[in-house]
Design brief:
Two copies of one chain form a homodimer. In chain A, 57% of the residues lie in helices and 11% in strands. Chain A is of the alpha+beta class and 594 residues long. The radius of gyration of chain A is 24 Å and the shape is globular. The relative contact order of chain A is 0.09. Chains A and B meet through helix 9, helix 10, helix 11, helix 12 and helix 13 of A and helix 9, helix 10, helix 11, helix 12 and helix 13 of B.
Chain lengths: 594, 594
């Protein structure tokens, strides 16, 4: 099944739902305009469609293999990687001072959505490099930037993020890998790490590992962790590639999906490393790049959902079965059966919502970074912080659910591996887990992001969302407006209740019990708000005679589909939000036992 | 991960939620009492835990293989099959006249839940035999029953259901396989069939294929299809095994899950067959057994969910990570984190609801068959018909969602195949598809079952459900009662609206658009009703000093968990139910295109 980059949807979201004006007004993106957006998306679509998508199935079948002390990627991946980096994709949003193009993160995310749609297992390799770039950019010395950052930005080398250990997953504070000073300014790294995505491969000359470990005598727990850099190959004084460093992959996991992405168990056995940033500040340094990594995973959820959607739409267009109630055709395409059309419409609406949430998060990060006025910058930072866990968790849950709907559209063929639908369902399942499980995201939202500014960011967002009601009432009659009004008042009630419980001495368990449902409620409603803004933008464009009127009418219908099929969830979310922690204490281990 | 049959939950559901009294009152089950129920469940648990569960992972890895013109099952399956049939499981609910034990279908379903939990790929083989047994029992001649039925009931032979063709899936009326009279009373079968579960294997001496095909000059469409029986090996006059019949597996599908269950492409090349039942009545004959097959698939959904739940509960009990807000323990079992406890509690509540729905459907079938008073029998038949699509679709959707939650509880380990969580997620995904996709179930519910008696069965069920409100108000304060009351009034509103739209000339598309959401609403609420009845039964048992008081308190909490986390969905379902078909017509192919 071939993939077609959704250029129209991506462009519409960036230009008309979110708008480029705020970004342009900062002056930080002198090259940015609608034409640049279109050109970047088109180029991304070309490499994703032409180079990456054709390797998706073969990569799944072949997988990456550990041979000796190195990982051999699936056939064709090395060549595809070289084609990919020629496009300059690693540097799209990187600083111009180090060879980047200095464009907004939001545009990079939009371009990478097509990469993840085309080949999610491949996409993880550049995605992890982007995380290493961000970490080095923020915390590296000038020498480290010159030596490593520019090679990562060009794509000549890749980066890997080395955090997890068997007993330190969600709780990184428990990690035990050590780094001992060697006396020459470098450190000797020891320990075993797991879940190291693209931790080894032969597609580039070198791989830059960003490793969390403890210095001797470091405090126990999260405040005793430092960040290190260890290249796979040490560098000679002239910068040429020297000896292999003392670390290696000792296992590649046998996984449900993303088979072509090697998930390595890595052993560090006296590996030479440099400190990045300040001693014992490793976790804090990681947090500075965590928002970016999390929204990038959200975009993976959107990407895999888009792919599953396109695959299912093609099947529903071709497959004929039964008489259509609409057309009367005896052996009609199944797209002409209401239940199938409804399923595809809901898939499309949810994808559009997730896409807007993720790109809005990226844009908030851009504005937080580039706004000259510190108050404005702080406001955008608050928006970025608030949206990040929602972008990550809501979009990746959506990815799994949409991939499952994609299988269902295929009927029996969906369960046969050859249609591809099953692969999307397998691949999609990792995104709710890594980069902080969605449960962790929900706890981050209610435990930190919601209250870090006394709830100001959430209140500001709610007030902004309310302003959609008046224009919406001019576009729609009745239900579509009511549903948004109800949804907004549910968000407001839930937010106030949570802030109140959070402030109460005995409220923590209630807040944590509510976390998942609150995140889902926020995602449902924020997504609906963006779709409503999209419908309003479509109406304006249509009134101005710009764009394809039929397609714009579709955006107006799309919000209605979303309102009828998703926004109605608010009351179920409220019931779950308010259930309280005490009920769960009655579900004792003895009660839970079979 | 070892499996433990949930004897307490199964027994409680049969004996206290549903009650044996109605079955006993028919006089059709003279042996039935609480001790028999316990003994049967315990024996089922033993074979499932001891014989079938240990082959689940190895069966998934090895799969079934096509070699030459035969399928070789995964290692150990043949021996396990022989152990299994020694228990007499194929005849539990079969008529005593042909070697069965004449116990209720509901008890058989409860026993088979443990089989599907233990090894879903294995469970399909006896499950398909049960379908063949039911078809032969209803439509076979005495000679066919003597020759084939008894061997199927003893398990000496297995049965296969041969329906689907590449262009005839959901629309069986389109099938083209032919059966030509040979002049000696037998027929020559020709055609290719797909998705034939356990269509071939070497575990038994013979396999009885029940095949849909067309007689010469049969009318086009669904009214020209007849049912045939073709054994893999023809029988000599003395009943001994003769020549191999002219059909064979020509392919085994490469599937997402249930790898050990061979899904065969079968070629019939002049195979010798007997007619079963009346010419051109094949589809109607199939429909008489379809309810049983559908609820059996619903039970698969419950079984795989139970297995995923147990696996996740064990992991959450062992895995330690982070400080518990409840216990203060620094490195607490993740079960002591509210979000994990909530997830497991919701899994358990949804499984209990699905289990009750499926067993209630089986019990309604038993009562429809065995009630002496024809009016009573008719009422139970209406209940069976109404519940069947809900049991099938709601429970299998639940199976997928609970399996996905099971992965999530494991964090990163859930994505690694070795924990088993990934296998449940893969295996579970077939159940919403086969035996009529869940979309077909929803259409069956709103298009046929709801209105076949003018809505009488639905109204009767709603009235019966309402009677729970008074005792519920004596057990709980506030929310748990309100939620059930709201849910019941939502079901009533939706049902009346659908009956009204169904009667309207232009209402068909609205009804079909609503189908999925209506089925989900019905399942949510009926499941909640059974959990409420369970809570009330638990209270009574506790008051009488019977049973384990802590466990019974757990049943009282379980309904509250369900009410807070599932019953709140009613308003979202209502919004989707009422959206109307016209909205979807605005989602044109041009709008849906990427």
């Amino acid at each position: 099944m071939s993939y077609r980059a959704p250029l129209r949807d991506l462009g519409f979201t960036l230009k008309h739902v979110l708008g480029l004006e705020d970004l342009q007004a900062t002056g930080a993106y002198p090259d940015l305009d609608a034409d640049v957006v279109d050109a970047v998306l088109e180029a991304a679509g070309q490499v994703s469609e032409g180079t990456l998508a054709p390797l998706n199935v073969s990569g799944d079948r072949a997988g990456s293999k550990l041979e000796g002390d190195g990982v051999i990627p699936a056939p064709g991946f090395g060549e595809a990687y070289r084609t990919f980096i020629e496009g300059g994709w690693m540097g799209l949003a990187a600083p111009t001072a180090h060879g980047g193009q200095g464009l907004p993160k939001a545009l990079e995310l939009a371009a990478f959505e097509t990469v993840h749609s085309a080949n999610m297992a491949f996409g993880l390799c550049p995605m992890l490099s982007l995380a290493a770039i961000e970490a080095l950019e923020a915390h590296g010395t000038e020498a480290q930037k010159t030596t490593y950052l520019e090679k990562l930005i060009s794509g000549e080398w890749t980066g890997a993020m080395v955090l997890t250990e068997p007993n330190a997953g969600s709780d990184l504070g428990a990690l035990t890998a050590t780094a001992t000073p060697k006396g020459d300014g470098t450190y000797s790294l020891n320990g075993q790490k797991i879940y190291i995505t693209w931790g080894d491969h032969d597609m580039t000359d070198n791989i830059v590992h960003m490793v969390l470990a403890r210095l001797p005598d470091a405090p126990l727990g999260p405040k005793g962790i430092s960040l290190f850099l260890a290249p796979k190959y040490l560098l000679n004084a002239d910068g040429s590639r020297g000896e292999r460093n003392a670390f290696r992959p000792v296992g590649v996991e046998h996984k449900l999906g993303i088979h072509a992405s090697p998930t390595c168990v890595m052993a560090y056995e006296g590996a030479t490393a440099e400190l990045v940033g300040l001693p014992n500040e490793g976790l804090a340094h990681m947090f500075t790049m965590m928002n970016a990594a999390r929204v990038a995973v959200g975009v993976e959820g959107v990407g895999i959902a888009e792919r599953a959607y396109q695959n299912a739409l093609a099947y529903a267009t071709d497959r004929r079965q039964g008489r259509s109630v609409w057309t009367g055709e005896a052996s009609a395409p199944i797209l002409d059966h209401p239940d199938v059309r409804r399923t595809l419409s809901v898939m499309k609406a949810r994808i559009a919502a997730g896409r807007a949430i993720c790109l809005a998060t990226g844009m908030a990060a851009d504005l937080a970074r580039s706004s000259a006025d510190p108050d404005v910058a702080r406001q955008w930072k608050g928006r970025e912080d608030l949206l990040t866990p929602i972008a990550k968790a809501w979009s990746t849950d959506m990815g799994v659910e949409v991939a499952s709907m994609g299988i269902q559209i295929h009927g029996g063929m969906g369960f046969i591996e050859e249609t591809g639908a099953a692969q999307y369902y397998r691949d999609a399942r990792i995104a709710p887990i890594y980069e902080g499980t969605n449960g962790i995201q929900a706890m981050d939202l209610v435990g930190r992001k919601l209250s870090q500014d006394g709830g100001a960011s959430a209140r500001l967002l709610i007030e902004e969302m309310k302003t959609v009601l008046t224009p919406l009432a001019a576009l729609y009659d009745g239900k579509p407006v009511e549903r948004m009004a109800n949804a907004l008042s549910a968000v407001e009630d839930a937010t106030l209740w949570l802030l109140d419980r959070k402030a109460a001495e005995d409220g923590t368990a209630d807040v944590l019990t509510a976390a998942d449902a609150y995140l889902k409620l926020m995602g449902d409603v924020i997504g609906g708000w963006f779709l409503a803004r999209g419908a309003l933008a479509a109406q304006t464009l249509k009134a101005n005679g710009e764009g394809d009127a039929d397609w714009l009418d579709g955006r107006i219908a799309l919000y209605e589909v979303y309102a009828a099929n998703v926004l109605g969830h608010v009351s179920s979310r409220l019931a779950a939000i308010g259930q309280g922690g005490d009920l769960l204490l009655r579900m004792t281990p003895a009660v839970l036992a079979p």
